[in-house]
Amino acid sequence: MPPASAAGAPPVPAAPTSHKSVTGTRKTVAALFLLPALVLLGALVVYPIGYSVVRSFYDQSGDGFAGVDNYRALFTDDGIRTALKNNIVWVVFAPAVSTALGLIFAVLTERVRWGTAFKLVVFMPMAISMLAAGIIFRLVYDQDPDKGVANAVWVGVHDTFAQSSAFPKAHPGRESPLEAAGGGAFVTREPVRAGEPVTLPLVGVAPDVMPDDAERAAAPVAEPGKVTGTTWQDFTRGKGVGTPGGVDASELGYAGMRIEAVKDGRVVASTTAADDGTFTLPAAADGAVLRLPADNFKEPYNGLEWLGPSLVTPAIIGAYVWMWAGFAMVLIAAGLASVPRELLEAARVDGAGEWQVFRRVTVPLLAPVLAVVAVTLMINVLKVFDLVFIIAPGSSQDDANVLALELYRKGFAADQPGIASAIAVFLLLLVIPVMWFNIRRLRREVRR
């Protein structure tokens, strides 16, 4: 047995055992493990940044030193200035709308049983690449309502309140009693008389696109003291078939055509043609000129030009929100799950309504999460490229231009690598403060 230690004397600690690494010191092992990552980081991040900074001070050929001329072009070139303005619009609206929708979705789905399924559906666009999303929304925003979903919905809503004309291409044929009156309307060459039937033949509308309620045209029947007539599609399929200016058995009436009687520039009577094209006007129309208003022939409403110069940027932002609102919702929902329920219940017990609880309790408690989400999306939109490049057509790409797209265009299409490098450095300078703010906030939350 080992000799007992003196009474009251503290035990002598055992000498520490040396565990030296096989490969050397612990710092050496850590460096060896980090070396591949450091090499990749240097090759893929540090070197390109350094090269871009150096290249931004040289001219197009790369041989002559250009000084700050490339950076001066950032504020004098029209394309870059438009891109900078659009980037400001993106940074202000895209993160704000995405974060707001994410907050609304996270709060509203917290109490419903199918909330998880809803969140899955909203988050699903995150699984789609920017390229695929761009192709999808290029089709969604197609100008043709038969192809583009956005215009199909918009035209359906519009036509509910303002029905489009069924005869946009109708016009008088040869030897017609009608003539152009300006503004797209047509009038009779001579005044009409009560008791004398009037024929108003038109051509230009294919039989297969006539209104569904159009019936076979009927010849007008004279009525004493009234002006009667027929307006119809004076066309029969087949060469030499049918009588011009006469109502034939296979021809269809212009159902719904509006007819006005005009005297001295004033409308004295008006009516609408029946399904067979016949119409009747009161005695007040005697001696008047009949007019077919321009509204009968206006082109059908084809919706909005979503990808035109004025709406292309908001349209692309809408596609971005569709993709990233789910990302914001998931992060905010995770933060909402950590909110103490006692605070919410205490506020309700004190008499606060649901809106007051949301505005004065939930949102302040979620402020750190909301800030992280918004700043992350700001960093993301500063680099947006794919959606703008794919969705915006060539005719309006200049109007939808952003810095990342202009970098690509200057570097490859315009062969100006110096200016493209200056744009890249400028983008880096814009992103760094936002990244620094985000990292600082995250560290502050970890310390808590």
Q: What would you say this structure looks like, in words?
A:
The chain is an alpha+beta fold. The chain has 2 domains: 69-154 and 306-447, Orthogonal Bundle (MetI-like fold); 178-297, no CATH class. The chain is 47% helix and 9% strand. It is built from 12 helices and 8 strands. The strands form 2 sheets. It has a 5-stranded antiparallel β-sheet, with no helix packed on it. Strand 5 (258-263) and strand 6 (266-272) form a beta hairpin. Helix 3 (78-108) packs across helix 11. The longest helix has 31 residues, at 78-108. The protein is elongated. The two termini are 53 Å apart. The mean pLDDT is 86.
In brief, what are we looking at here?
The protein has 448 residues and is α+β, with helices and mostly antiparallel strands. It is 47% helix and 9% strand. The chain folds into 2 domains: 69-154 and 306-447, MetI-like fold (Orthogonal Bundle), CATH 1.10.3720.10; 178-297, no CATH class.
Strand content range: 5-15%
Choose one word for the global shape.
elongated
Instruction: Count up the domains.
Output: 2
Biggest pleated-sheet summary = 5 strands, antiparallel
Q: Helix tally?
A: 12
What is the CA-atom radius of gyration, in angstroms? 37 Å
Top-tier CATH class of the largest domain: Mainly Alpha
Architecture per CATH nomenclature, i.e. the level-2 architecture of the largest domain:
Orthogonal Bundle
Q: Taking strands numbered 1, 2, ... along the chain, how are they ordered across the largest sheet? A: 1-2-8-5-6
Task: Please identify the structural class as seen in this structure.
Answer: alpha+beta
What is the distance, rounded to the nearest whole angstrom, between the alpha carbons of the first and last residues?
53 Å
Q: Would you identify the CATH H-level superfamily of the largest domain?
A: MetI-like
Give the integer mean of the pLDDT values: 86
CATH-derived topology of the largest domain: MetI-like fold
What fraction, in percent, of the residue positions are helical? 40-55%
What is the total tally of β strands?
A: 8
Sketch the topology as an H/E string, one letter per element: HHHHHHEEEEEEEEHHHHHH
Low-confidence parts: none
